[in-house]
Automatic annotation (TrEMBL):
Its main location: membrane. This is Sec-independent protein translocase protein TatA. Keywords: Cell membrane, Membrane, Protein transport, Translocation, Transmembrane, Transmembrane helix, Transport. The Tat system comprises two distinct complexes: a TatABC complex, containing multiple copies of TatA, TatB and TatC subunits, and a separate TatA complex, containing only TatA subunits. Substrates initially bind to the TatABC complex, which probably triggers association of the separate TatA complex to form the active translocon. It is found in: Cell membrane. It comes from Vibrio maritimus. The keyword Protein transport applies.
Amino acid sequence: MAGISIWQLAIIAIIVALLFGTKRLRTLGGDVGTAINGFKTA
């Protein structure tokens, strides 16, 4: 992936978690999962 290491991805994930909070990210992930399941059944 164009020179992006696993450490850089980990740092970005930590920054995003700090900005949005883990609870908000968990609900966002659940919403995305529900949408994907909806597309599969449609």
